Every structure is written in structure tokens, then in C-alpha cells.
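Quick start: what a row looks like.
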Amino acid sequence: MHPAISVIFFTVMSGAGFGLIAMIGVGMPLPSGLAAAFFIPALAGLLAVAGLVSSTFHLGHPERAWRAFSQWRSSWLSREGVMAVITLILFGIYTLAWLVSGERILWLGVIAAIGAVLTVYTTAMIYAQLKTVPHWHTGLTPLCYLVFSLTCGLVLAIGLNGFASGSSGSAGLALFAILIAWGCKYAWWKRAETTSLAATGSTMESATGLGPIGKVKLLERPHTGENYLTREMVHVVGRKHAAKLRTIALALGAGLPLLIALGVWVFAASTLWLVLAFVALMAGLFVERWLFFAEAEHAVSLYYGGRQA
């Protein structure tokens, strides 16, 4: 499928923002004081909102985005919007209480954290529910979204706690979280390698219903020019290019953050270094998320001659 920049930005940024909201809510150690109570939640909210706003640019009519909220009974996209608003309101109340009292109310924070996790889950289910895209239609898709979101939030929270001379031992927690997150993604990639349209029984014969007659070959494309389906649903990325991009994603998103976290842990350095690890992790995730969309095969591509890679 076509990897739209707005959707990539949305899934990565909002995932990190809601991940940080979850970490703040469950009581992760953070600097104290009025400045911290304002700027740290503001950073989490900014990441989440920036991602959500960017997602509207992929719509044909962004000004009608509000209408999606009415379909929450049947649409994961609508559920995502509803959960995002509820979570941000709860987190706003939590932040206000923190600013006024100087205390972090754990029970309210946990509720906001649960909302953040559910928001990320609904985002992932927008893609995981699609049977027409075999790569996405697996429980590993929401798992990867969730672990990457929480890992980003954890790494950033530990890094920010460096302003309060946070314990370098917490870098070990970040290290293991990064390993687990990319381990889940590796499992997703391994499954994707054996999950194609053909492997799931989707062929030009099944798509057209002409299989009983014989082998189907494309004589002429359904449209002579480009259209919405060819722009959004049909995209080709060569296997060699995909392999290179996976290597880049792993180097940026796993290798560099792991080295930084290991260095902080072993040499008892300031956890502020983990802010740099967070930046590297996010860079790797942008590449990973581009591949998430680019490598996906949508069944509609069968009507345009299938995927040639």
C-alpha cells in the first residue's frame, strides 16, 4: 500500500505521546516541581495531538473529520477518536491536579494510562482488522503498536528523569524494553515473509471469480489512468530495498538506542542520554512504519495485475 507521510507521522508520534502519558500515569519517576508538572505532560500531549492532527491530512475532506466520532459502534477509526479525546481530557485533569497540588494522583493517572493504551490499541486495530491485507491481519499488529508505544514512553520518561539525577539502573529497564519491542517486530516480519495474498489463497482467479474457467491473465487494466485505488492501495517496494530499509530501521531504532542504554547502565552515566536514545528510536520507527505500509499487499491490487517485486 502507499505509505502516506501523514499516516506514518500520526502512528509514530501519537504512539510515543500516548506511551509517555501511560508512563506518567502509572507513576514513573520524574522530576518534581512546577516546571516539570507543566512541561513534561505538555510534551506528552503535544506528541499525541500532533500525531492525531496530522492524520486528518490524509482525509479527502479534513474538515469533516469530526463526523467519524458518530460511528464508534462499528468503526475502529471512530473508536480511536473517541478514546483519544477521553484520554486527553482525563490526562488534562490529572495534569491540572498535579500543577495545583504538586502531587501526582495515582488512581487518576492509572485511568488515563489505561485510556492511552486503549487508544493505541484502537489505532492498531484499524489495520489489524483488514482481512484484505494479510500482512496486517494478525494479533502481532496491535502487539507491535502497543510495545513500541510503551517503549517510546518508557525511554523518554527515564531520559527526562535525568534532570532529577535519575538512577542509571533504570537504563537497564529501557534496554530490555527496546529488546522486547524489536523482538515482537522481528516476529511480525518473519510472519509477513510467509504471508502474501497468494499464500492466503487470494489470486486473480479468486478475485475475479473466474478460477473454474482457467488461468486468468490481465488483458487491460480497469482504468487507463491513475485513480484513488492505484494511488492508495497499490504500491511496490523491491525485496532488496525492503531488506536495506529493515537494516536501517534496526540500526537506528534498535542498535543505537541499545548502545546508549547499555552505556548509561554500565558506566552509571546520566539517564539524560536516553533522550538521545528516544530520538534514535523514533527515527527507526519512522522507517519501520514506512515499511509497514509499503510492504502490505491489498487484495484490490489483484485487479491491477498483482504485485511484482
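That is the whole record. Residues 239-267 form the longest helix (29 residues). Residues 5-304 form a domain with the Formate dehydrogenase/DMSO reductase fold fold (CATH 1.20.1630).
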